[in-house]
Design goal:
The chain is an alpha/beta fold. The chain is 35% helix and 26% strand. It has a 6-stranded mixed beta sheet with strand order 6-7-8-3-9-10, with helices on both faces. It has a 4-stranded antiparallel beta sheet with strand order 2-1-4-5. The structure holds adenosine-5'-diphosphate (2 copies). It holds the Pfam family ABC_tran.
Length: 239
């Protein structure tokens, strides 16, 4: 798994909004870190600077071997291929099968002749089934994604990210649209995947309780500034 490092990163959007202010942090390979803060504090922006979607206005972002700011073309695809993304809105193709939704992760960042033909090899199939097994949804493989519950849909999205065989998982408010028991079970899945596969995980959360319970380290953002970086369990509500 890749480490993730921000050195004195600031982000100013074209309209002048400053979303991150001189943020420095280092996430070790295999670590699971929660990024916590109110809406508008810069959590999504932080995730988008890590996958190269939003450029740092100043400072440097390093993900594994990649200096994110300097990447173009094939190297940028390599970075994104190494990063599995999970969002609040699950972004599944509801009319397609669970299998097809997870298979998409295999080809998302490395299009090949097989993508164009929609052909999956034996290895692709095995990886898709293993990813679904990781989230406990093997029995739904031939069901339609649109027929699943919210928690199941998010698990399919996690399986889709896993089928990419990523080095890093970035989850932007993955449980914000789920009811509390379902949110807990999806967080538990993420934590289990982090420990079993040794993946580096950054997860944006606005609920500190989930961060305390399922991660060991918490990064607190307020108005784009890093206001806390330490153990999740002892972070107080001021974060
Ligand atoms: P969070 O994920 O914590 O809600 P965001 O990173 O989405 O925070 O937003 C941080 C700040 O940047 C907010 O003030 C938000 O309105 C602003 N912002 C986010 N995206 C854009 C954008 N594309 N253009 C301009 N401002 C933006
Ligand atoms: P989040 O807090 O999860 O980022 P938002 O509702 O703040 O969600 O933002 C939704 C979308 O709108 C994002 O793509 C974000 O970049 C964009 N956005 C947010 N604030 C602004 C803004 N002030 N100007 C332009 N785009 C914005």
């Amino acid at each position: 798994p890749w480490p993730v490092r921000l050195d004195d990163v600031s982000v100013r959007y074209p309209d002048g909004t400053v979303a991150l202010r001189h943020v420095s942090l280092a996430v070790e390979p295999g670590e699971m870190v929660a990024v916590v803060g109110l809406s508008g504090s810069g959590k999504s922006t932080l995730v988008r600077t890590v996958n190269g979607l939003v450029p740092a206005t100043s400072g440097t972002v390093t993900v594994g071997p990649h200096d994110v700011g300097s990447l173009r073309g094939r190297r940028l695809r390599e970075l994104r291929g190494g990063i599995g993304m999970i969002f609040q809105a699950f972004n599944l193709a509801d009319r397609a099968s669970v299998y097809q939704n997870v298979l998409v992760g295999r080809f998302a960042h490395t299009p090949t002749w097989r993508t164009l033909l929609g052909v999956a090899g034996r290895e692709d199939r095995e990886i898709v089934l293993a990813a679904l097994d990781s989230v406990g949804l093997l029995e739904k493989v031939w069901g339609r994604a649109g027929a699943l519950s919210g928690g199941q849909k998010q698990r399919v999205a996690i399986a889709r990210a896993l089928s990419q065989q990523p080095q890093v998982m970035l989850a932007d408010e993955p449980v914000a649209s789920l009811d509390p028991p379902t949110a807990h079970s999806v967080m538990a899945d993420l934590r289990r995947i982090n420990t079993e596969r040794g993946l580096t995980v950054l997860v944006n959360l606005h609920l500190m309780d989930l961060a305390r319970q399922y991660t060991t380290r918490m990064i607190g953002l307020r108005d784009g500034e890093l206001v806390y970086d330490g153990p999740a369990a002892t972070a107080d509500d001021a974060v």
